[in-house]
Write a structure and sequence with these properties.
- This protein is of the alpha/beta class.
- The protein has a single domain, classed as CNF1/YfiH-like putative cysteine hydrolases (4-Layer Sandwich).
- Strand 9 and strand 10 form a beta hairpin.
- The longest helix is centred in the first third of the chain and has 15 residues.
- The protein is globular, with a radius of gyration of 17 Å.
- Bound molecules: zinc ion (ZN).
- The site of zinc ion has 6 residues, from loops.
Length: 264
């Protein structure tokens, strides 16, 4: 993996999106944003991509423009509700109709982009940003997998939506981005047990020896059961690493993102 820092065009020395790029195959532009850079201030300081977390919307939209510059194409963000609905974008947004770009679109926790020249993103603070791509089929997706979404089956519904547009599960490559690690993600014992009853691989123990949930182990397990060809994990624990926003660390904070699209 390489870092996408420093993608400002021309001589402009303004802020740039700090993105950890991941290789999901030929032509696929994919990465996870980090907190540094951006124009947000106060408790959201940095590259906050969350439109509904109390930050100045003008700052968030400017940060989203920086991510679009990094991606090299319009980026569409679903309005996330911790469910399992998936939006499918069959074509790039029409020029002049910015509905799909920058601002939040439909309520759902995953989005599929079909074809070249448009990207989809999810925003997170401790939940898992999941990027999926089947470059041969020309289908990519971004999913937001927190505990409720993972248990509700958001990743299975995302793979199903990709397959409905021609993707082949064994050809799908997945990157799980930085998120709350089992080291820190302490939960009541009953919650751990309830999660494990649905996805056994989520059961974990914190560094301190208390009940925990391992979100990324759970994501990897359900994706493998759905037949996905490769799953890799990028980055560490957002509660430990202050270069990412963390809701566990601060209730008022911003959101990092995962973005994926096929270059135009
Ligand atoms: Zn941790």
């Amino acid at each position: 993996m390489d870092s996408g820092v420093g993608t400002a065009t021309g001589a402009s020395a303004g802020p740039v999106a700090d993105v950890v790029a991941v290789d999901l195959g030929p032509g696929v532009r994919a990465g996870f944003t980090r907190r540094p850079g951006g124009v947000s201030r106060g408790p959201w300081a940095g590259l906050d991509l969350g439109l509904h977390v109390g930050d100045d919307p003008d700052h968030v939209l400017e940060n989203r423009r920086l991510v679009e510059r990094w991606a090299g194409m319009p980026v569409w963000y679903p309005r996330q509700v911790h469910g399992r609905e998936v939006a499918v974008l069959d074509a790039p947004p029409e020029p002049g109709r910015a509905l799909a770009s920058g601002a939040d679109g439909a309520e759902c926790d995953a989005a599929v982009a079909v074809g070249r020249g448009h990207a989809v993103a999810v925003v997170v603070a401790d939940c898992v940003p999941v990027l999926l791509a089947d470059p041969a089929a020309g289908v990519v997706a971004a999913a937001h997998a927190g505990r409720p979404g993972l248990l509700a089956g958001v990743l299975e519904s995302t793979v199903e939506a990709m397959v409905a547009r021609g993707a082949v599960p064994a050809s799908i490559r997945v990157a799980l981005g930085p998120s709350a690690g089992p080291c820190c993600y302490e939960v009541p014992e009953q919650m751990r047990d309830d999660a494990a009853a649905r996805v056994p691989e989520t059961a974990a123990t914190t560094r301190a020896g208390t009940p925990a949930i391992d979100l990324r182990a759970g994501c990897a397990a359900v994706l493998r059961r759905a037949g996905v060809g490769s799953v890799r994990t990028v980055g560490g624990c957002t509660i430990d690493d202050e270069s990412f926003y963390s809701y566990r660390r601060a209730k008022v904070t911003g959101r990092c993102g995962g973005v994926v699209g096929i270059a135009p």
